[in-house]
Amino acid sequence: MENLFFIFMLSTLLVFTSTSVYAQNVSTPRVSAAAEVIQKIGLTTVSVQFSRPQVMVNGNDRTGNIWGGLVSYGFVEDTFATNAMPWWAGANENTVFTTSTDLMIEGEKLAAGDNGLHMAVYEDGKVTVIFSENTSSWGSFHYYGSENVLRVDVQSVEHDFTNTLAYNFIDFAPNSATMVLDWEHKRIPVKIPVDPEQTLVAFRNELRGIKGFSWQGWNSAGSTI
Fold first, then answer.
1. Residues 66-82: pLDDT tens digits?
2. N or C: which end of the chain has fewer CB within 10 A?
3. Per-domain residue ranges for the chain?
4. 139 half-sphere exposure, CB direction, 13 A CA radius
5. Helix, strand, coil % (nearest 5) of the chain?
6. Distance from C-alpha of 123 to C-alpha of 182, rounded to nearest angstrom
7. Which of 36, 68, 70, 74 is nearest to 56 (CA)?
8. d(Cα 154, Cα 36) in Å, to the nearest integer?
């Protein structure tokens, strides 16, 4: 009888163990959907990977409670944060800014590559835009100032209502553009000029190849300068 009871309990345990091994949560849409914006500035390709929180969620209108509320001003302490942290300029994972070449951000050099993008927003409209070498964390909870590669200050402006956070590029010129973050009634602009000399170097390198043996190659380079 004892052996039968043991066999029954063992069989039950195996069934539950097997069920827990194969049971997995299904993938469901995130409240803050992932997005990517890609833009060519001169010969430089710039992209922003981010998630898009909304002002209105499930019928709850959070207008007036975003800046200084959901997005705290400055650097804040948090139970889960290792240091005082800025806002991660989006939602979910790190917002990631990528540039194919070195470029200037508000007059300061940023090297080619991937960087985590953070912002410290202040009540007077100032925004400290931070580029970090850390691109793989959740939000800003593992933010370390020692990982910063660039910090610049910009001034936010009032803007038309934007329900879903968005990054866009505006004010285009042959070698510059302005990246903007729009959310609720705020716009955060970041000026991005690229180095015209890099364009000339790229032209020179291309014209040393097969493109340099046709008039079209020289004509297209000349019409851009």
1. 999 999 999 988 767 67
2. N
3. 30-209
4. 16
5. 20, 45, 35
6. 16
7. 70
8. 23
